[in-house]
Design goal:
The complex is a heterodimer of chains A (251) and B (496). Chain A has six helices and 13 strands. Chain A has helices spanning 8-24, 41-47, 71-84, 107-111, 121-133, 149-161; strands spanning 35-36, 50-51, 55-60, 90-94, 113-116, 137-143, 165-171, 183-189, 198-206, 209-210, 217-222, 229-231, 244-245. Helices cover 31% and strands 28% of the residues of chain B. In chain B, a hairpin with a 4-residue loop joins strand 15 (465-472) and strand 16 (477-483). Classes of the chains: A alpha/beta (251), B alpha+beta (496).
Chain lengths: 251, 496
C-alpha cells in the first residue's frame, strides 16, 4: 500500500489539537486567573500562585507527635488567600490533626476560622466536600489521611464547583497513592542556623507541567513575629523559570 | 424589692450559694454611680436608693456590698412573663413597670372564695417564686396602686377597698400615691400640699388651672371617678404551620412535599412578623407510635425554606414513620428579629456573605452536632494551654476579642496535655544535649531559652515553667519546658 501524506487541513487540525491540549493547563501558567499568590517569588513566578478551585496536596513526614500537617505553611497560605479576598470569607480547618494552635494564627485569620472536628474518613470527606462547594468558604484546610482515588476526585470536583483554595494535608508515606490533586507538594524540616523554623518544599507534581527535581525545591522559613513564611533570603536565586511546559509525545 | 428578689431567684436557679453580703443594685447616671435598689440588710445600714455608691460604701464599712448592675429592661421583661403567669388568677393581667402587676379580677373573687382569699393566694404563689409582694384590691386601678404601695397594713393582711371606703382610705396618703410626675409633686410640696386630703379640700375647679390637667385626672382615677383600663398581656404563639392528612401515609415523597410546603408557609408567617427562626421543630404524628419530633438549630435567624429543609431533611430521613403519619406540624420554637431586606441589584457583599456562612455552619452543625464545630477565642493568659479556648459556633458568639497579650513566639501545634520527656544536659542549667520523647532519643543541635512563664497563682498553679526552643538533628523545632520546682521536663509543642 502506497503511503499518502496527510492533507494540509489535517495537519492544521493537528496543530490546533496540540494547542488545545496545551491550553487545557493554562491555569498552571503565570497568567492564571484567581490564583492565590504564595508570597514565595520562585513559586509565584513558576505557577502564578496556587490556583483556587483545584486541590493542592501537601505531603509531610509524620511527626513523632502524631500525624501533623505542615501547619505553619498551610496557615501562611490560608492567610495569603484571605488577604486576597478582603478577609470576608471563612477559613475552615477540618479534622483535629489540622487544628493549629490559635496563638500561632494571625488575628484576622483566627477571627474568620472555623474548626470542624470530623473524625473518620467519611466524615472528613463529607465536610470537606460541603465546605469546598460553599461560597462562604475562602480556604479549606483538611486532614486527608487515607484518601482514596474516588474521594480525591470527588473533592477535586467539589473544589471546581466552589471558589475556595483547597489545601489537603497527607502523610508522606501515602505519596504512591494516586490522587486527582492538581498539585502535590512535599514539605520537610530543614536544619537551619537561625532560630526560625525552616522547611524545604518541593513541587512533586503539577498538572500541565513536568517538574524537574533540581529546579522545584525551595527553602522557606517562618517569621515567628508575624507567622508569615518566606523564602530564605540567602538561598540561591531560583526565580528563573523552574518548570517547563510538558513535552507532548505525539503518536 | 423586685430587682433584688429577681437577683436572688436567679442565684438560686444557678444553684449559687446564698450570699450573706448586702446587695446593692447600681445605676450609672452620667458619670456618677448611684444606688438604684438596696436589700434589707443594706437598708438597715441606712442605705437608701439615690445615694452615691461611694457614700454607700462608706456608710456600710466594714461590710463589703455585692454590686450588681441595674438592668430595667431585664426587670421589665421578667414582669411581662410574670403577667402571663398571673393569668391563672384573672383573665386580664398587665405588667405595670417598674415593679407592679395589675390584675382585673372582676368576677374572679368568687372562684377563689372571696377577695381576701384571692389576695392571699396571689401572695403565696409569688412567694413560692421567691418574690415578695404587697397585694391590694380596690375598685379603681389608681386606688389599688396607691393602697399596695402606701397602705400601712401589717404583713399578712391585705388592704381591701370597696366603693364605700375607698375615699376614706386614700385621704391620709401622701400625694406620691397618685402616680404624679416628680416635678408636679415638687410643686405641690412647695405649696404645703403633702397629702391627698389637702388636694380634696381645694376647690375642684381650680386644680387644672393651678397644677395642670394631670393632677385632677390622677385624683379621679384613684377615686374611681375617671375610667381607666389596663392593657392585658397576651401570649404570642410561636409561628406554626400544620397539615393533617386525609389518612395516614408512610410515603416519604408525600411527607417531603408536605414539609417543604409547610416550610414555605412558615417562612411567610415569619416574614409577616419580621422575624426569623433560630430553632424549628418538626412534629410527625404517627398512628401507632408517639409523635416523632426533630429539631433544627440554626446559628443565625433564617426564614429561607430551602435552607431550613437542608437541615431538617437528614434528620427526617432517619425518622421511623411507623404505620404512617397523620399530621405534620412545624413550629418555630425560638425566633429572633430578622429585618426585611430591600431588593437591590447590587447587594452589599457583607450581608450575603454572613448569610452564606450561617448556612454552611448550620449544615455542618446539623450533621456533627453543635459541639463539634468551633471557633477559637483568645484568652488573657500567659499559660499556653489556657491562652485559647474552643467555643461552639452555634452558641451565642460574643465576637469581641478581649485584650490579649502579644503572641510571642508560639509553636503551630500545642500538645494537650504536655508530654513528659527525659532530657540530658551537661550541667543542670546548661544547654540540652538530647531529648528522649515517645521512646525515641534525639540529639539536640540548638537550644534557645529559657523563656520563663510564671505560675498563675490565682488559678492554683504552684510551679513556673522555663520554656526552651530546641532543634533536633533533623531540623525540627520542639518547644519544651522545665518546671521550676520539680525540674520535670515536658514537650509542649512543635513547629510543624
Amino acid at each position: 500500500m502506497r503511503f499518502s501524506p496527510p492533507p494540509p487541513t489535517t495537519l492544521r487540525d493537528l496543530s490546533h489539537a496540540i494547542e488545545r491540549v496545551q491550553n487545557r493547563f493554562a491555569a498552571a501558567r503565570p497568567d492564571a486567573p484567581d490564583a492565590v499568590p504564595t508570597g514565595w517569588p520562585g513559586v509565584d513566578h513558576a505557577l502564578g500562585g496556587l490556583r483556587r478551585q483545584v486541590v493542592h496536596e501537601w505531603l509531610a513526614d509524620p511527626h513523632p507527635a502524631g500525624f501533623n500537617a505542615p501547619l505553619a505553611l498551610l496557615a501562611h497560605l490560608a492567610a495569603q488567600a484571605q488577604r486576597q479576598t478582603d478577609h470576608a470569607r471563612l477559613a475552615v480547618w477540618i479534622g483535629r490533626p489540622c487544628w493549629p494552635h490559635p496563638r500561632a494564627l494571625p488575628a484576622p485569620l483566627l477571627e474568620r476560622s472555623i474548626f470542624v472536628d470530623a473524625s473518620d474518613r467519611a466524615e472528613r470527606v463529607w465536610a470537606t466536600d460541603l465546605c469546598l462547594r460553599s461560597p462562604a468558604a475562602g480556604v479549606v484546610i483538611a486532614d486527608a489521611r487515607a484518601l482514596d482515588m474516588s474521594s480525591s476526585r470527588r473533592l477535586q470536583l467539589a473544589a471546581g464547583a466552589g471558589d475556595a483554595l483547597a489545601l489537603l494535608a497527607r502523610p508522606w508515606r501515602e505519596r504512591h497513592r494516586i490522587s486527582a490533586a492538581w498539585t502535590r507538594w512535599r514539605a520537610e524540616p530543614e536544619p537551619s542556623d537561625t532560630p526560625s523554623p525552616r522547611w524545604a518544599i518541593q513541587l512533586l507534581r503539577c498538572k500541565g507541567m513536568q517538574p524537574d527535581e533540581e529546579r522545584t525545591r525551595w527553602s522557606v522559613l517562618r517569621d515567628d513575629a508575624t507567622g508569615d513564611v518566606r523564602v530564605v533570603p540567602d538561598a540561591p536565586d531560583r526565580s528563573a523559570p523552574t518548570v517547563r511546559p510538558a513535552r507532548l509525545a505525539l503518536a | 424589692m423586685l430587682p433584688i428578689d429577681l437577683l436572688r431567684r436567679s442565684d438560686r436557679r444557678a444553684s449559687r450559694s446564698p450570699d450573706e453580703s448586702p446587695v446593692l443594685i447600681i445605676d450609672q447616671i452620667a458619670q456618677r454611680r448611684v444606688v438604684a435598689h438596696a436589700c434589707e440588710r443594706a437598708r438597715a445600714m441606712g442605705i437608701t436608693p439615690g445615694l452615691a455608691l461611694a457614700d454607700a460604701r462608706g456608710a456600710m464599712a466594714p461590710a463589703v456590698p455585692r454590686l450588681e448592675d441595674h438592668d430595667p429592661a431585664h426587670t421589665e421583661s421578667c414582669l411581662g412573663s410574670l403577667a402571663l403567669w398571673a393569668t391563672r388568677f384573672a383573665p386580664a393581667a398587665a405588667p405595670d413597670p417598674p415593679d407592679g402587676l395589675m390584675l382585673d379580677i372582676s368576677g374572679c373573687a368568687r372562684v377563689w372564695g372571696g377577695e381576701a382569699n384571692l389576695a392571699d393566694s396571689i401572695t403565696h404563689a409569688l412567694l413560692s417564686l421567691g418574690l415578695r409582694a404587697r397585694v391590694a384590691i380596690a375598685p379603681s386601678v389608681g386606688g389599688a396602686w396607691a393602697l399596695a404601695r402606701h397602705s400601712k397594713h401589717p404583713p399578712g393582711q391585705h388592704p381591701l377597698a370597696h366603693a364605700g371606703n375607698l375615699r376614706r382610705l386614700l385621704t391620709p396618703f401622701p400625694t406620691a400615691a397618685l402616680r404624679l410626675e416628680p416635678d408636679t409633686l415638687h410643686d405641690l410640696a412647695r405649696l404645703g400640699i403633702d397629702r391627698v386630703e389637702h388636694l380634696l379640700n381645694l376647690p375642684r375647679r381650680t386644680l387644672p388651672a393651678r397644677f395642670g390637667d394631670a393632677v385632677l385626672l390622677r385624683l379621679d382615677q384613684a377615686l374611681g371617678e375617671a375610667i381607666e383600663t389596663i392593657e392585658p398581656a397576651r401570649p404570642t404563639d410561636p409561628p406554626r404551620a400544620e397539615r393533617v392528612f386525609d389518612g395516614s401515609t408512610d410515603r416519604w415523597d408525600a411527607i417531603e412535599r408536605t414539609v417543604r410546603d409547610l416550610l414555605d408557609e412558615l417562612g411567610r408567617r415569619l416574614l409577616a412578623r419580621e422575624i426569623g427562626a433560630l430553632r424549628v421543630s418538626a412534629e410527625l404524628a404517627r398512628t401507632d407510635l408517639g409523635p416523632a419530633i426533630e429539631t433544627a438549630v440554626l446559628s443565625r435567624p433564617s426564614r429561607d425554606a430551602r435552607h431550613l429543609w437542608s437541615i431538617l431533611r437528614p434528620k427526617l430521613e432517619r425518622t421511623h414513620l411507623g404505620f404512617g403519619v397523620e399530621r405534620v406540624r412545624l413550629t418555630a420554637t425560638r425566633v429572633a428579629r430578622l429585618h426585611h431586606e430591600q431588593a437591590e441589584h447590587w447587594r452589599p457583599a457583607d450581608a450575603d456573605q454572613s448569610r452564606r456562612a450561617g448556612e454552611l455552619l448550620d449544615t455542618l452543625g446539623a450533621r456533627f452536632g453543635p459541639t463539634r464545630i468551633g471557633r477559637a477565642e483568645l484568652i488573657e493568659s500567659h499559660i499556653p494551654e489556657r491562652a485559647a479556648r474552643w467555643s461552639p459556633v452555634l452558641a451565642d458568639h460574643a465576637g469581641t476579642p478581649t485584650t490579649v497579650p502579644p503572641p510571642g513566639d508560639r509553636p503551630t501545634v500545642l500538645l494537650d496535655p504536655p508530654a513528659e520527656a527525659r532530657v540530658l544536659a551537661l550541667t543542670p542549667d546548661g544547654p540540652v544535649l538530647s531529648l528522649a520523647w515517645k521512646g525515641e532519643q534525639r540529639r539536640i543541635e540548638r537550644c534557645l531559652g529559657p523563656e520563663r512563664i510564671g505560675p498563675e497563682w490565682w488559678a492554683g498553679d504552684t510551679q513556673g515553667r522555663d520554656y526552651f526552643k530546641l532543634q533536633d538533628d533533623a531540623g525540627r523545632w520542639i518547644w519544651a519546658f522545665r518546671e521550676t520546682g520539680s525540674r520535670r521536663w515536658c514537650v509542649h509543642g512543635v513547629w510543624a
